[in-house]
Design brief:
Blueprint lengths: L3 H9 L7 E5 L3 H7 L4 H21 L4 E8 L7 H24 L3 E5 L7 H13 L7 E8 L1 H17 L10 H5 L12 E4 L18 E4 L9 H13 L13
Length: 251
Amino acid sequence: MKYKPLLEYKNKHQEISPYHVAIIMDGNGRWANQQGKIRILGHKEGFKAVRKAIKFSIKKKIKILTLYAFSSENWNRPSCEINSLMELFLFALDSEIKNLKKYNIKLKVIGDITYFNKKLQKSIYNAEQLTLNNTGLILNIAANYGGRWDIIKGVKKIINKVQQGVLQINNIKENTLTQHLSTRKLLPVDLVIRTGGEKRISNFLLWEIAYSELYFTDVLWPDFDHNIFQNAINSFISRERRFGGFKGYEK
């Protein structure tokens, strides 16, 4: 069958709770505006919500959590906000490394980090290396990430292999591209949550969420807590996932 790998995944991971959750963390700036505060304070409150989401994921035995922290389009924001975000990212990496080790969390940053300054790149590398052998929650932080960028990067790698004679064009399958993306070692996304009231994907994990369940909430990211997370999981549990098939199809 054309989608045999996907159907095999379905059969192996028909779990009550989602195995892989991805979150578009939207609303930090609007939260700050509503509070009469500067935008960076909204991002700092958003960092607290990240901690809550991680703790809840561990409690619910979610295996993979992918957070959309900074998109490749976010560079269009004011430079003062970007600089503050980079400082906050650096602070989060350095301050949370003990907790990552304590809770057995494996950290991976996906995205083009070459745009970041050397100090931040080094901090990312160190955090990834220090948690490389952890076997608990896999925490992916999408930073300077875009789904289109990732697909193009993967296609270029495949073309290079074809040109070198390592790969034949007729042997290129869906899984070929999957294995050349930033998320190549991970299982597909089960549930995508977006806060902030917008109902769009915003160039996030475009390949990986082909059959994901989507959950949108008006709650701004700094106000995201375990109750909202549980509501999303409850919605996920209530749905019948058919992966393009139909009820009763067992093949």
